[in-house]
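Record pair follows.
FIRST:
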Amino acid sequence: MDWYHIFDATTEKWLTLAIFAGCFILILYRNVKIVYVSLAAAALLIALGIISPTWAILNKVDWDVLAIYWGYGMLAIVFRESKVPSLIATYVLARIKKEKYALLFICALAAFLSSFMANPVIVIMLAPLAIEIAERLNASLFLYLIGLAISSNVVTTVSMVADPPALILAMATNMTFLDFYWFMGKVGLGTLSTVGVIVALGTLLFQFRHLNNAVDIKEERVRITYGPTIIFFISVFALAFIPMKHPGIVGFLLGLASLFIGRKIIGEMMREFDTIWFLIGIFVVIGTVESVGLLKDFADWLSGTGLRSPTAYLAILTWMSVVISAFVDNVPYTILMIPVCDYLAKALGVSVWPLYFGMLVGTGIGGNITPVGATANVLACGMLEKRGYQINLWEYMKISIPFSVAAVLSVHILLQWLWL
């Protein structure tokens, strides 16, 4: 049975555009909890008869993405509790002699861990270590926490599970875990992004070059558990090597295993992920935008600008995504832009993959530009403000802009060279 329709197709398109714009504005300014915003927008679109609830839930919500995101979110919590990151950190820091290398190590460790789990969790996990080092050395905590935050957010495309946008692209295009490293006979997005991360960390080392205080941190005995590490490697193996129609099964089983391991803190674990509800609402909103034809209209407008060069469109999509994601949540933006890239590639008669990759790198790293562009940045700035630091936008951007631009530019050049 068809869902009811109150309005004609043109009116539905304008109403959808208005609801979509209002949803994005509220998400941007965060005056209302964003999970309420996305669910309310989805409910309004259904109530107005623009999309049916059955079609929205079964065809527009990507349950594989939600299952994997939930599973790795649960894993991140028990991995933190296992103390493995603390063991690695104390072991290495006890052998570092200068402050600039200690700070670089914290940033590199944050980048590595965030390649496989949510960056806000990494900030929470490593912040006590950064604070302790800064206090021992009587150093500026600002550099430590901001460096930690932007480093955890620069790896959004290094792996399939690094960040929701990467996972959304992988599920939408049937990419596997290993496709991020070698794909269609070429170097994959994850490998290219790793180069970008190394270049970005190099800019931090340059900015920290004057931090030559001696580091004297004693190695401590840390009691660890190996369960979370074991199930992590099992899950990666399953995603990489076992063909399956619904990879979300791996995420779901990983989440259940993590809940069992962390059963003593299960209440805390279940409260962490109201983001799932936010994603459900956003999938419905963007799905409706696509269904009524707004995405095709946007792609037709872009392709109708007179530009016919894939090089120009790669640059536009990459750097437009950087700018927009400095202010707009990257999850709804990614869901919006995947079909736009499809339409553009068909109009230009070129492969869609470099457009996908450029857009994804831009939207992932662009959130680093401003203190409110990514949750990790918001967390770090909140910690600083609680300790009496006033966040100066210029001081923040002196670190974030060279770091982010270096990462995106490196990947952009490699995409142009290897994929176009």
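SECOND:
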Amino acid sequence: MKKRKVKVKSFIILGVVIILLIGGIILLTKITQNKKEDAQSSPNQEEIEKEQPQSSPSQEEEEHQGSPNEEETNKEPKETPPVSKYTDEKQEKLAKLDNIQNELDYFKMDYLDRYIAYSEKNPTLSKKDVVIRVNIGLDQEYYTNTKQSPYLNQNYILSNKYTSLGEYVPENLEEVSASCSSGTRLLVHEARVAFENMCNKAKSDGYTIQVMSAYRSYQYQVGLYQRYVDRDGVKEADTYSARPGFSEHQTGLVADIDNGSIAYTSFHKAKEYSWMKENAYKYGFIERYPEGKENITGYTYESWHYRYVGVDIATYIHEHNITFDEYYVQFIEGKK
């Protein structure tokens, strides 16, 4: 009986163990199954990176793309061929003038066609002289396309048949001393002082020079020019007399000279004329309308007409045998 009880008890224990084993196997199976399901529903890091859009590079890639490497930075830019600032047509015309536009700082591209036309009409002139004369205005009729003189009350003021003074009245007009004039004559202060110094030096050298005509107002020139026109006609009068507003006498820088013995129109025959040719520039005066320069000045030869421009300008003009008009367009116009 006792043995039977022990045997029954052993069977019960064995049954419990078997039940526990079966339960454990079932639980383990469920856990394993859940892990597999989680793995399938959540992609790993590699898959996540693969699914990242290619348009968003990593920070390292962005820095690389945004900053060129040293080799690229040091590369010199490719040279582009220079582009001519002139058209083929202009280049052709400039060639006719020996391409002097870079040699002369007073060359005006706006005048190119005028330079060409004047050069063709005057083939013996140098290209430099062509530019100078066209800049003066000599390719056009006198008193056409005139402009206002811009340097009033300056020693280098210009008055010619292309440049008008209007009704300008200069400052500092003063009377020339009686010992150096034939009457009441007015000059601008600086010109007066220079003329009196020249006059006194001439006297000490045994020569007599005096002012017989100096400053003339606009209104005075109106009457004077009209008398000449009435006597000789406009064409003839224009060769020796300025129209009102265009007279150099209006600048207060001009002295018509004689020696007190012969007519001023014969001054070139007087010994004083030779003295003036040799000494006038030392005092700042030039012979304004010299012989042989009529086609530049626009006036007939006047041996008695002297213009004050200052010693430096007068010296250059004397040494280079040019007119004030030529000097003006090279060294003054647009530069002062």
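COMMENT: The chain has two domains: 87-139, 142-331.
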